Write a sequence for this structure.
């Protein structure tokens, strides 16, 4: 069962840790996932229907 959960967890491309859903706005439908070590950020924008990725958020 643990393997199935690891398939669906998105991971940071640099350090391979699971991304945290840190900032999400349910009214706008925007979801932001970040690496705990601040290497990577991934935002979903429903108006664009795509993900926007950022590296090195420091």
């Amino acid at each position: 069962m643990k393997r199935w959960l690891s398939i669906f967890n998105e991971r940071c491309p640099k350090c391979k840790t699971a991304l945290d859903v840190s900032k999400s706005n349910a009214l706008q439908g925007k979801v932001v996932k970040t690496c705990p070590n601040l290497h990577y950020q991934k935002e979903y924008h429903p108006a664009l229907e795509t993900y926007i990725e950022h590296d090195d958020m420091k």
Notes: The radius of gyration is 12 Å.
